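Lab channel / #folding
Pinned by the channel admin:
"Please post every new chain as: sequence first, then the structure tokens as a reply. Keep commentary short and put observations after the output so the thread stays searchable."

First post following the new format, from NK:
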Amino acid sequence: MPMKYLHTMVRVSDVAKSLDFYCTKLGMEEVRRVENEAGRFTLIFLAAPDDKKQAAAERAPLLELTYNWDPEVYGEGRNFGHLAFEVDNIYETCASLQKSGVTINRPPRDGRMAFVRSPDNISIELLQKGNALPVEEPWKSMPNTGKW
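Reply from TO:
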């Protein structure tokens, strides 16, 4: 059966905090938004910049942020797993996120992989594009922080 990946949906409790994390800090871009007054929810679809470039030729995978207007408390849902993004330089990405106040839960000690969490505790895996970078400090000696 032919299949194409379309999007991953995560529920968010604060649109502004989520957009700050995913767009301002991670660099994703909003590609469309749906306000459903009858259903009392907002859907915000985001694309990574490199994926957005190819969207005209074929639909890029998207991240769907679902905001329910009526307050709900969401658990961490560890069984969800994580979202994964490929980055050009794992060290520069982690340093930039750390500088903007994001905790690096699993540092890129191996020059290849790191984990952070969104404001709603969604695990985000960051993977080095291509081969792993040479192991560097301060990442090499940095311990894990919290859960990832």
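NK: The chain has two domains: 1-71, 78-143.
TO: also worth noting, The mean pLDDT is 87.
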